[in-house]
């Protein structure tokens, strides 16, 4: 054991002398801190926007009270009044933004057709969406393997090429002890950086003290162990340093870039999903056609869905609000199967990726961290379902006014339902990802041990 620590301290002195590696660790530390800053700033910006929505609603109500100073037709109020379905972030979202940078954190709703409002989003820079946001999860998943590669590509080859390994093994020291000391130092250095950044990120984001802390740290440690295992396998082949560097970079490109890209293409082909824009266009066409249909035909279709309003007066006017909102809703009903198929298709794609992400630990860890932070696709789909239920509650609130011809007073604004939704972590997904990562680590280390047993370390 004393010899092990001598070798470990030698690795430390060697690292301090390698200014390039020290600089790389410093840059990675700065990158991680920036990732934490960006993630927390982005989530704080979203929180500020969500906190401002009640004031926007209050102003909208104040304007309507001025516009309609007395009792008003509820159809006018439903048309001009804006409500918001809000998606509050989990505190962990600051560390792994996931889809919160591309999907809206709130939906502006009126009493009109739902689908067009549900999929209406602000324009986003496509290059930014393509590259993704620079959060802590990005640093851990995509940049830390590069540091491990820089530290480990010459795990044994540099001493062999400089003639040091033959002198070292001539001493009473086992090759396994030398290799263990080298791996232990690199693991200590990498984990120190990763755990430091994780700790700073958790404190900065103010995450709750629950079991997710241990899960995040376990994913981080296992992911670093995986890439050290890959370095061990390459070192066991006992090739020159340049060959090792190219091989490790090739593995990084394969697992981080190529496999995810091919997996994305394969999943898209295996689970085709209609575009959301097709759904909204179909709904608009159905709604626009409602202006030309006989009112009796529209209302009979609506009453088949809501028979409780069938006893209302026959429409003889050229325009009446209850008829207008009826064919707005029928537009949603017409595309309901397509909307359901769209959501189910997205979920099926996600499930298929979850089944295949064992092929790429990078995808596995990224999706596990997103699930832990409640920023994954299921969280967004749950928010959309919640927004749909809220829109249903708004219709249920306004329909008695519209079909019973009850006047809408200023006091009725306070009775309108409100909405709030907070993401919840998909812990089952995270635990499955943790298990798959553990299996990957065990398999790669077993391969490295087998290669070292078959090909004993050659000092020359």
Automatic annotation (TrEMBL):
It holds the Pfam family DUF3526. InterPro entries: DUF3526. The keyword Cell wall biogenesis/degradation does not apply. PANTHER family: ABC TRANSPORTER PERMEASE, ABC-2 TYPE TRANSPORT SYSTEM PERMEASE PROTEIN. The chain crosses the membrane at residues 20-39, 136-157, 188-207, 213-235, 242-263, 433-452. It comes from the Bacteria. Keywords: Membrane, Transmembrane, Transmembrane helix. It comes from Hymenobacter telluris. This is DUF3526 domain-containing protein.
């Amino acid at each position: 054991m004393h010899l092990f620590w001598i070798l470990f301290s030698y690795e430390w002195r060697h690292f301090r002398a390698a200014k390039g590696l020290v600089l790389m660790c410093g840059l990675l530390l700065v990158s991680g801190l920036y990732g934490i800053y960006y993630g927390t700033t982005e989530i704080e910006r979203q929180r500020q926007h969500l906190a401002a929505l009640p004031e926007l609603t209050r102003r909208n109500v104040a304007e309507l009270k001025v516009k309609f100073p007395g009792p008003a037709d509820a159809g006018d109020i439903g048309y001009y009044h804006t409500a918001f379905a809000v998606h509050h972030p989990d505190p962990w979202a600051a560390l792994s933004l996931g889809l919160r940078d591309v999907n809206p954190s709130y939906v502006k709703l009126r009493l009109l057709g739902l689908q067009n409002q549900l999929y209406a989003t602000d324009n986003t820079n496509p290059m930014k969406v393509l590259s993704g946001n620079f959060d802590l999860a990005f640093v851990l998943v995509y940049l830390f393997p590069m540091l491990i590669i820089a530290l480990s590509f010459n795990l044994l080859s540099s001493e062999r090429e400089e003639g040091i390994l033959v002198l070292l093994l001539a001493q009473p020291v086992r090759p396994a002890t030398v290799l263990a000391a080298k791996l232990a130092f690199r693991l200590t250095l990498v984990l120190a950086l990763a755990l430091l950044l994780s700790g700073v990120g958790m404190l900065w984001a103010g995450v709750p003290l629950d079991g997710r802390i241990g899960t995040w740290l376990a994913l981080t440690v296992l992911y670093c162990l995986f890439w050290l295992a890959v370095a061990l396998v390459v070192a066991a082949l006992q090739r020159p340093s340049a060959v090792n560097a190219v091989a490790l970079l090739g593995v990084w490109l394969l697992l981080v870039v190529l496999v995810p890209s091919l997996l994305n293409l394969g999943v898209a082909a295996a689970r085709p999903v209609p575009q959301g824009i097709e759904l909204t266009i179909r709904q608009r066409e159905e709604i626009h056609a409602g202006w030309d249909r006989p009112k009796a035909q529209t209302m009979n279709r609506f009453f088949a869905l809501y028979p409780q309003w069938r006893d209302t007066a026959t429409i003889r006017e050229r325009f009446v609000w209850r008829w207008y909102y009826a064919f707005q809703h029928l537009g949603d009903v017409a595309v309901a199967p397509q909307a359901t198929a769209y959501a189910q298709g997205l979920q099926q794609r996600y499930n298929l990726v979850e089944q295949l992400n064992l092929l790429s630990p990078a995808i596995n860890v990224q999706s596990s961290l997103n699930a832990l932070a409640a920023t994954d696709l299921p969280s967004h789909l749950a928010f959309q379902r919640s927004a749909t239920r809220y829109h249903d509650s708004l219709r249920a609130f306004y329909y008695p006014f519209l079909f019973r011809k009850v006047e809408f007073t200023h006091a009725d604004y306070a009775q309108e339902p409100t909405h709030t939704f907070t993401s919840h972590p998909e812990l089952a997904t995270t635990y499955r990802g943790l298990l798959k990562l553990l299996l990957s680590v065990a398999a790669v280390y077993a391969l490295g041990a087998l290669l070292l047993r078959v090909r004993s370390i050659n000092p020359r």
